[in-house]
User: Fold these one by one.
Assistant:
Number 1:
Amino acid sequence: MMIDHPLLGLRDAQEFTYLGDASLIDRPDWQAEDAQETFHDYLYLRENPAGEHRELWFHETGDRSWLVVTRNTLTHEITKVELARDVARARGRSK
Amino acid sequence: MNQINRLTGGQINRNKELNFRFDGRSFKGFEGDTLASALLANGERLMGRSFKYHRPRGVLTAGSEEPNALVELRQGNRQEPNTRATVAELFEGLEANAQNAWPSLRFDAMAVNDRFSNFLTAGFYYKTFMWPKPFWEKVYEPIIRKAAGLGSISFEEDPDLYDKGFLHCDLLIIGAGPSGLAAALTAGRSGARVILADEDFRMGGRLNAETLTLGDASGSDWAAEAHAELASLDNVRLMTRTTVIGAFDHGIYGAVERVQDHLPQTIADKPRQILWRIYSRKAMLCAGAMERPIAFADNDRPGVMLASAVRSYVNRWAAAPAQEIAIFTNNDDGHRTAADLIAKGVKVPAVIDVRADASAVVGAELLAGAEVIGTEGRLGLTSVTVRLANGQTRKINCGALAVSGGWNPNLHLTCHQRGRPQWNADLAGFVPGPDLPSGMSVAGAANGQLSTAQALAGGAMGAVAALNALGIAAKPAELPQAEDAPIALKPFWHVQGGKSRAWVDQQNDVTVKDVRLAHQENFVSVEHLKRYTTLGMATDQGKTSNMLGLAVMAELTGKTIPETGTTIFRPPYTPVPMGTMAGRATGKHFHPTRKTPSHTWAEEKGAVFTEVGDWLRAQWFPRQGETHWRQSVDREVLQTRKSVGVCDVTTLGKIDVQGKDAATFLNKVYANAFAKLPVGKVRYGLMLREDGIAYDDGTAARLAEDHFVVTTTTANAVLAYRNMEFARQCLWPDLDVQLISTTEAWAQYAVAGPNARRLLEKIVDADVDISNAGFPFMACGEITVCGGLRARLFRISFSGELAYEIAVPTRYGDGLVRALMEAGEEFDVTPYGTEALGVMRIEKGHAAGNELNGTTTALNLGLGRMVSKKKDCIGNTLSERSGLSDESGLRLVGFKPIKAHDPVTAGAHLMNASGEISATTDQGYVTSACFSPNLGCSIGIGFLKDGANRLGEVLRAANPLEGQTVEVEVVSAHFIDPEGERLRA
Amino acid sequence: MAYSGLRIIKEALSGHKGWKPAWRDPEPKGQYDIVIVGGGGHGLATAYYLASRYQTAKVAVLEKGWIGGGNVGRNTTIVRSNYLLDGNQSFYNLSLRMWEDLEQDLNYNAMVSQRGILNLVHTDAQRDAARRRGNAMLLAGDDAELLDTEGVRALYPFLNFENARFPIKGGLLHRRGGTVRHDAVAWGYARGADRRGVDIIQNCEVTGFRIESGRCLGVQTTRGFIGAGKVGVAVAGSSSRVMEKAGLRLPLESHVLQAFVSEGLKPVIPGVITYGAGHFYCSQSDKGGLVFGGDIDMYNTYAQRGNLPVVEDVLESGISLIPALGRVRLLRSWGGIMDMSMDGSPFIDRTPIDGLYFNGGWCYGGFKATPASGLCFAHLMATDTPHEVARAYRLDRFRTGHMIDEKGQGAQPNLH
Amino acid sequence: MHNLKPMTALGADTPQIDQFDGLEISERPDFALASLSIRLGRDVQCAEQAKAYLGFDLPEPGQGHLSDPFSCFWMGPVQWMISAPHDSHEDLAVALKQAVGDAGSISEQTDGWCRFDLSGPGLTAVLERLCNVDLASLASGDARRVRLEHLGCFVWCLKPAEAVAVLGPRSSAASLHHALVGAAKSAL
């Protein structure tokens, strides 16, 4: 597979380490009443769609960026690649 | 007997005669021959035996799709089973043997199976061999396994090298037949980066095998000219002997180049083959088509061949399969064969054409509307029996029968990403479907464009389209006049009502009868058919048989072929040596070897090394007279605890953490608190996974307000760094933190023992105060040593002794260890390896990899209090789940044998002092154990249910695996200096 | 009709006219007591045991394609019971014992071949772990032997002992482990179930569940609605897709595991061997092909195909372990979609919806579990109580922190 | 001056040089390295201070800069590797830190890496047997992080199509060197 790195262009997926569902960015609030429940769902009940999937890849033997890759799990077609840090900020993870 | 069937002409070099041996007999051939063509030229039709019935077999094809002519090529450690004689290039001294035949190819005892074929029908083995029960493994299976299989291996290590490589191009063209060459000329002239790959050693594809002309040149001459022009363009890379084996995601193709298989001897340091990974922006599949056979009674005799193969042998290799060759066809292609044979002076006794309206053939008798219903000849064809249109039968003498059942496009690579082919009625075959791998287009015969003119045009236009899509201007190469015959074919698959078996899959001995039985037993889905009968499962992957099988099944179900199913293919296109897929990363070079800064010095000292991940670390340093490793290790431990020892701990991961939020950040990735760690201090830290399980521990040293150096375990250096980057980029993206690994940049040594300080005082520069007051336990600092060299000093201890870790830039690591040893002489300093390190940490009750095994929590490790509940950190929430916070759960404790000489063994399971020893009574397990020279007995640490409350209890450590059960006392895991006075000394 | 050597002779002499279909192709009925979704090994086994051991009258197996086309038809055929943790031991112990009696039970030769499985160790820490595992196996009533280097050499003299990056320091031998002819397992169970009245319905895809007031009443399919007292889902890699139709999310991901077969060879590998320093395990089929595999491709996928890096990784390991295979040719590769769970262990459990049951999360260990999985799932559905050896396989175990994590990798499915 | 003798990554006193028909592979211990990362929100200030010290702008992603005494290549988002002659700049990290102050984070990387320079007409043929970098696409100074011999290495273009520096993890220098030499023997 080839991943179109936002900064470096097409890179071989072999340079990356796969983590999975991009919703792992949305780490819950540890002080919430139902923290155990929300952390359970956050960690264990991940998206596993047959189709478009937003997922985290780490450019480990590359520039060490975490990326959010939108990829179709039926065809492997990649339609979008973002820097995970930007996504995290967009999802309100800034301090 | 020398090349009795060699004809005139052909693309062989008659000035270069080559000697070779097959099945123990000597022959001669010419440069440019394949093993198959040379054998045919010598009048040899028998080349192999079939898998199941051991039927005599000759070549069916002239290419890589060959199911029958499989041989063992070369000898000794280069012996190569299942090599297709049809693609093995002849070289001087080539030696090949028949396989799956005993005692000899001509007389094969196992051919007796053929007599019992009626009992050995499809899937018979599923219905028997069940009684008596033990007999399957003991009797039946060994016999079956011995009989099964094809070639054999030498069991010696393959001496050859295999390379990997990476290529980049705008357009990859797969196949150098008419369409591929036209595409390459078009793209090459446009200036695009082009790769043209073909599995043959001569480019041109069918152009080399046919007598067709392109313009006023012969097909092969035109191909040679095209090749020459392409070779002159440096934007075009020509790759002959290169098979594109697979189409992978996003334009990546795998290709195998056979660099030296055609050479008598391999050249030193050069690879036998190269696995290329080709990164293409666009790709064109121009792989042509394969002719398919027709099934009829005894259609598997040596001499029964595909018509196109007969033309290849006669035209390209000037080798006649026989003196008299009859033809059996359902299309005009068969007639072309007759013309070529006659032109070469080969006698054609008859053209048997199933089409009643077939047009006459010049120079040969046409039997229109006739069918072949049988063949004769034990080791080779002598005659065929024909049922004429009028129902009469006639015997026709011939040494070969050229069979043409139509053509199947070579669409294999279009299926590698699960693309589905489409039915094309004109060809009565499958053509590539719409769901091609992204970036791929198909041209020429592979796309159902069977005439030469169509192939040329398809290639040129295809290249233009592909390049234009890339924004590269291109215009189609001007193309010569070429044959443009329409497809004239009557779908015809197998001759009905033949008396004996008609073969569908020749290698696996699957006959029409077997397909019938599969249907009768409801194995009608194509996949069931394949799996039940093994149709298409042979080394040719059904290239010549799948369609036929489908067609027969379709007849039986009354459905159309496309309704019955499609044939879909998976990589590799043709079988690939496992060594080629492995490349160079094998043996000693399977993984890179990481050496510590003291490696050279340790070698001088005669150290014994051990693998720790990819690192090589000194395990112990034997001294004169020490005959057993325990002597060395015990000495290293005792000497260190008595005086001082030095150990290379460079392998620990080191991560530089900087930024004004560095402390806040560490507070989140460590379970324990770091915010208030003063500058100049080190703190032990425990890292949890988000699921609350402890996964790594180490230290963090605060060199400045905004600068920490974090250490991880050797094993988790990469993982911890990755997780910290995840936390930094994805969880807390606006903390001011910067990370970078410095593991390799610093050589780090532990200096441990009562005399550690006195030793170091001789190394660190005068202005550095390392007195207990000036540099107390858990202090750290950036200092200078040996007269001004920048260094880092940490007062931390894994051994439990007064200890420091000292780091200098790696290039000085060798110098430093020598300096430490020299300075330590007066204290009788000892280097110690990983064994002594392990012993001392077990004596001290420190957890390591065996304890941090991915299933244990801080609570289990006895570090429950470390997990701060006052802050958010990775893992703390889920660590509180009931299943992980059981107060009477596993706890880390120590074990001492009741009988001093009993061994405590890692991996033993803990059982109560009395009662049953079983999984249900399991109390825990020993994780680490060693002989403690300080306690004079074997000790261990491990996890015990409610361990904290069971100190003093006597248990049994059960190790049935090695037949030992020993009584142990539960003790604190801190065997030595539990109050930690030594490390603060 | 019963299969036997005599029968074969009789048929051979009478033109094989007597062989009956191995299973019927019935039209789906409107209502069944129990409907099993998924005609793979586990689904067919469940149906077989429901009919043979739990006397369930009306059972149907619904398969979207052809039976045995899932992982039971695309695996490396290994059976074993070499587990470490409580939750798994007794289950796989039962499964292996069931394999040992399977052929006589089914009257179908699935070629259960206990050729022995050898897990190599290359470091002291690996040996410690192997010892703990081996002892766990013995304590649970399975077999295990700890071999040293010479013990390994005696069994596999052609391994790389001299020139290895990671020397072989021994291995854990599990003699009762081995291989089984995978397709035959599906066919044997299908035939056995069919003979006991189970309707096996191929080309029948489940498109939805009819759920009313918290109870599952049946399934919508491409061949119409089929009512059921109880519905059991055993669809491996498709688990998330199917259960999603019932509004359920599962703690698992779908990943592709590639497997490989070489050209046919005269006998090379006597048993099953797994490399401890890389991703490679290998056995040899009765037909002569080396059957081998390694690690999954690491990314979520439903495409039954993999990519080059994993192939290269597997072969690097393979040739490093067995240098004599260098000139042997890789013939074919394929991919199966694995239902990789969050702790590497499976689920056999009720769901929050009455009458809807789930069997999945088998990762790439589903094949060896087939008999016990079928029996335990049948037991659960027939009695509404978990089978005693499958109690730990609960869907809610992550809520309570009762993971069954043999590899200690945590909530990272692609690492199990 | 301290009294410790340095050792090359290949474990010798002097750097290794290998000659092939069309390629020279030379070990280069004579460079000091330091990483520079811009602190959060300090981009402008840090870039300016770095430029003041280095004499050139910090390069764009994937690119680099070659000059005397300082050269540089982009390593990752807001992170660069700075290189300078070891003899004159052994304390590069310290000097850089003084230059950028608290606007940037500096880490000494000198001995984290071993460096082999490959130069000669045979470069393309050798490199294509080693890693997936498309040499034709590299301009002077460009750097790519690649997998080479299973190692994360930088391929740093010193002269388009003719010369590159390969930086790999120092502890694996022998393995990396073996791979480079093996590829050269194989391809040339």
Number 2:
Amino acid sequence: MSAVFIFLAGLLLASSLAAVMFRRLVYTALSLAVAFASLAALYLHLGAEFAGFAQVMVYVGAVAILIVFALLLTRNAGSDPEHPGHGGSWITGAAIAVLVFGCLAFNIVTSSACARPMPNPPSITTRQIGESLMTRYVLPLEVLGLLLTAAALGAATLALEDKRKS
Amino acid sequence: MSGTPLVYYLLLAALLFSIGLGAALTRRNAILVLIGIELMLNAANLNFIAFWRYSPNPEALSGFMFVLFSIAVAAAEAAVGLALIVSIYRHRRTTRLEGMSSLKG
Amino acid sequence: MLGSGIIKGLLETARNFFGSFRQPERLVTIEYPEQQRTVPENNRSFPFLVFDRNDPVKGLRCVSCKICEKECPPQCIYIETEKDSRGKPIKHPKVFDIDISVCMSCQICVEVCPFDSIKMDQTYELSQFSRYDALILHKIDLAKSNEYYHQIKPTEAGLVDEQLAAEREAQIAKAKAAAAIKVAPATASPTPKPPSPAPPAKTEVPA
Amino acid sequence: MILLYSSPEALLIQLKSWTVSLAPAAWQPVLSSAISALVILLLFAGIFALTTLVERKGLGRIQNRPGPNRVGPCGLFQPIADGVKSLIKEDIVPAAADRAVHFLAPLVVLAPAALALALIPLGPGLAAVDMDAGLLCFFAVGTASELGAFMAGWASHNKYTILGAMRAIAQMISFELPLVLSTLTVVMLSGTLSLSSIAQQQGSYWFGLPAWNVFTPWGLAGFIIFLIAATAESNRSPFDLPEGESELIGGFMTEYSGFKYAVFFMGEYFGMFAISGLTITLFLGGWNAPFSFLVWIPSFIWFLIKLGLMLAWFIWVRGTLPRVRVDQLMNFCWKMLLPLSLLNILAAIFWHFTASWQFPGAWGLRWAIGFGMIALPFIGISQSGARQKKWGPRIYRYAD
């Protein structure tokens, strides 16, 4: 295990735990941004340059900002008293999460597929990615374009609705 | 380059997934539930990247492409999800999930 | 077309930019400590006391009548009258203080003064490090010569001088006349009081 | 170590590798990165100091004032005085502020800008970080400054700061679209995301004239769109709404003073340098000389000259144009820049597929058609906008 991995994994786990535990919602959004950034650093560490930068651009630059906007637009609701420490649903949820982790960890540790040695770092250029996007993966790309357009229109319609009524 | 075995990446992703799952199950604010879902998606992405990196033939780019598409889909999902939450908030003045259950039988 | 206004504006600012190097008269800035703007004659800051005959102590026109002290709206003037050896007040201020941190430059003291002894100054560089002591001007700080007054406000000072000269002549003429009258009957009456100065003929400050 | 002189750039690179080779082997990568970071930071901090002075003097001259001229000869030491002043000023944190976030916000603004600077190639082989997906990395790190603006605005706990932060984020997100779309043309035609290869490809000459991207129709239109979007992206006048001091005091920087304010200021200027460097690399031929007989001047000198011209342009625009309104800004972005940058991609495709035309006058015809593909829609949009009184000259109801 390399020191970089330990550092990034620690940062990722700490910030994602912070993101779900913080009572103040803005802290949640900020630590979520840190979690996304450390995940992107992990991608870079694994040699996936393009995916890392895409992660930063989309998650830190767009999703985290969107969440911040949503938090500020629904500001009064954020002050609702929330008691995650009480009530049966909290215990059930946490138990399920721990159980799921236990199952996953058991399977991962006992799996033979994980004993794979690390191959030499692949030399993937951006050009190769672009070419395979335009040849082998061109259909998913087109479908994705359609999906994003639909999502943009849908989000705009949802957000506009109130204005038209009033 | 990192000498970290694959199993650590998978364990990290499993932990991240569980954190996200826990958040999605226990928190009552819809935005926080969405954050939990995003964390779970990211855990899956981490798995894809790790498997791609440790695969015998990384030039095939399958896992890598999956992550690119998944990032784009997640962005769309977050945009629509948050727009829904904001528009529900306008009607109901709440982002708590209990407040949105008027269609429940 | 959209954008042509932007180009016009850019050309205008470019003309200003290069013009300010080639035509120094474009630069309107006065670089203050080196260059100073000449203040207009009617500018006023704080009062000062006028003296004649190059004698800042004896030559003060002030007779310590205390009209200005009474009239001053913010009460920033403090005057004590000089006394001779027998304790009898004489027409000279012993103390004349003006607290210019209180003074509001209203010029009322100048207008009420019957002797044209207090006038408005034009100095404005009066910053001090101490807030209390350094801003109280004493008699010695306030005393400034008539020449200085002529220098800063030539028109007004000329008028004041003419008026004072006229008053003095009138006084001398009156004294002569009185002496002639008194000499003629040759009655040894006690010396009359020196004629009280002419009723306060105000020097109207040219607006 | 013998320094083999082949070119000034090679000399600099050899000097660095010689310095690094003095260190023990384990520390060499660290030292190499440290030297690069130090050089980048020192160079651009020096340019920052100079820019603040030149900006103030230039703005003064535009307004027929001499500008700062008191500190040192011709006011040359003004930046030092400003630096000392901001260092010794009291650092005020509002009582209601969120201290940790308030402290972190200036760093979150400065660090991405400095990172983006490291990606800009100053000459062949003279980029601190030369990566294959450099352009993507540039935009990725650029997005973090939005988060910094939000942190500053929210942590200050003040209505003006939060309004400024909201404006900043909305503006940056909106203008990112035309910004990225106009760079897309360059990426399409050069076939790479690496900034140094993009600059390298513009290094040829055509009868002594440079083959820069700006001399093609799509390049010219892309350059103009990019320049406008870059002005908005770096929060420069006339798009400095986030800190519009007439209505928002200082925007998201209202509650900052002393050194933290200076860090914000530096972050903004670093962002401006980075985006100017990107403009130069993408459209203005990078480090290449404008004429083939001038190639003997070292490449980084050319880069710095072009950077200086870009900064002069930014200052000139700042001294000329008044600040726009929020709705004007958004209308302009979404209804003008975005359609035009999409059309620009079409023009670039046209240019790419007509590259094989060989008949006489082909170049002129390609230019005319490609330019018309953008200029005609521009005129159309501006006419229709003027008809709807969206972009017409302002009518003063009471002033006249």
Number 3:
Amino acid sequence: MSHGGYVLAGYAASAVAIGAYALRVLGRGRALSRRVPPKDRRWT
Amino acid sequence: MELAVHLRAAVSLLGRFPALAGVDLDVAPGEIVLIQGPNGAGKTTLLRACAGLVPVVRGVAVVLGHDLRVDARLVRRRVGLLGHATFLYDDLTVADNVRFWSRACGASRADADAAMARLGLEGRLADVVVARLSAGQRRRASIAAMIARRPELWLLDEPHAGLDQAGRDVVDTLVRDAAAAGATVLVASHELDRARALAGRTVTIAGGTIPSGGTTPPVLASGSPVYGPRGRQNDGWVDAGAPGAPGEVVGVP
Amino acid sequence: MFRDAWLVAGKDLRLEARSRVTTNQVAPFAVTVLILFAFALDPDSDVLERATAGLFWVAVLLSSLLALQRAFTVESVDGNRDALRLSGLEPAGIFLGKACAVAAQLIVLEVVLGIGVVVLYDATLAGPLLLGATCLAATAGLAAAGTLYGVLAAGLRVRDTLLPLLLFPVVAPVLIGGTRAFEAALGDVPGEGWPWVGLLCVFAAVYTAFGVLAFGPILEES
Amino acid sequence: MTSPAPSGTEPSGTAAGAGAPAHTGSQGTRVLGSVTAAGLVMLSLFALVFSPAEADQGDAVRLMYIHVPTAVVAFLAFFVTAAGSALWLWKKSRWWDLVAASSAEIGVIFTALTLVTGMVWGRPIWGVYWTWDARLTSTALLLLLFLGYLAIRRVPAEPDVRNRRAAFAGLIAVVDVPIVHYSVNWWNSLHQEPTITRLDPSIDGLMLFTLMLGIVVFLLLYLWLLVHRFRLAWLEEQLASSDLAAALVERRAEADEATISAPPAPSSAAKASGTIAEASR
């Protein structure tokens, strides 16, 4: 693969950034959900 | 007659801190009311909320006929606030400051000059840069800027602080004259003797609340003054809560 | 509205006349920036000469930040922001007044910097008409956008660090437009410069209109 | 590329009780998340394995399959932020403020990724990471504008004040975008060739399909992230306002302490807390 390193770097950076952000949002969501009664979480 | 100030379960926040946690207060036009309470009780915030500077986020707040939660802007130009801050530009002279603030609300230059004369700021003192004034002179300049506006509601936060004896007398005279002319005055002061002589009645604020028992003007005006914090102990305390919510008596053990 | 603007602008200029912060502090700072550029870029080569237009506007931008911070510091000390809200002055008038006062100070700074680049960078001020028009349009834009962000950041504890972050990306078009127009004027091809003046005028118009509309709600909040 | 789709099988949080799962997922986001995850796997296969290398760019063209979608999502996110800000000013519904805030945060992430993937692509193709290309430059300015927006959001303030401040900051930034774009474009065109065409119009069918797939999958990803981020913001708001109820109780208790010279009575405060919490809803 030509420029394989660059391609991989680009994909890895995107995967890591989006993955880390998503995990953070989900994790914080879980932590805060425990402290909010279900009736204030209309999606459940 | 329409009340000058009408608050029910008013809540105001400083950041996330509820400095006012449910205030009930009715003040009739022309009344002079002393707000007393310990440091941190919410006196300053109450006055600032009445001025429309601190938003009332819950409850009812009508001042000078306008709902503060809807059009505070119409209230602001009609009140005069004398706070801890003196509202002066350090690098301008006394005359510049007083004239700027009075012209801003449409008062004339003559009003400004009369106000300065009333506070003993005429002549040489008028052309001194504010930064070079003493604390008391600064305070006088601040009062002059306020009275030049001819406010309908006077909100005085420690008006006597930093003034000499003559200055305090001037303030008292100004307040009496204004009230006689129909203006409403709320005073928060620790100079209790002086303020009580001035005020028609006293309202006690504590923990950001004025219990509804302390708000009806006639009872307190005619009955024995309820200064002591123990005064409420026998009454119990009606929590008005949100407007329309049934009040619940929380007994004090 | 214009009466209020006049009153506020008069107050701010009087304040400046008495305190002389812009003339005694900001203007020397601007000249210092010009000298620093000369240290950074080898003055013997023609780099300075070629970069004169850009360096001029970067210096204007940096010193405009100081002028703006000063303009809003005087409103945040001693509760004057509250006093403005109590004053009954029309917010749009306050905005125009403050922007005009800032603009007047920026014009003075630009004159100082103009003399600075002529003396220090050996620039020849060709096309004075284009130069003047560029300065006016760019100053109006800078003052309008800066006043808008100034009041947004004023009253916040972090305002001194927040204002540059907010302001500089927004005024990037002013830097680009001012620099290109100056290059055209100094390079004696004014025809290429006028479209940029047009861009600067659009920028100024957009932010002045936005400020007149938005200043009220922004100032009303505590 | 991994997608941490929410798994509904995990045991729910206990403290929230009543069998309600303690996370920001729902039936809808689970479906959306699964589809997105499958799409991302498919995109990876198409982008890295099935699609051919391009004649001029070689395999570097594969970066386009994420660069273009991230850019699309970034611009969409900022458009949503602007719309949310405007709608908040109009409707004063905190819903719109939360949408604007959530979208701006996602937009900043995707803008940064757009720049990173663009630079990683530029290095082998142009020979440099950065060039003062019009699109790159205005995207960088856009990133800075919205970093400013997020910074002003983070300044603690009363919710209504913060929302108004943020809404105006968002609108001021958005008003700037066309001016920035235009001026940068114009500035650029004076000095060098217009933006290099990144993909040949006579593009190979499979490559075009991969690109379109990328855009669709990233839009789904954006939507999934937005829903979760919005719910997280909602939770934060709920906690802040329930904190207010507690703070009111605490504040009023100060009056008790002042009234009764005896030590503070916890039973009175506890009793009051129920009523006030109800009254303040």
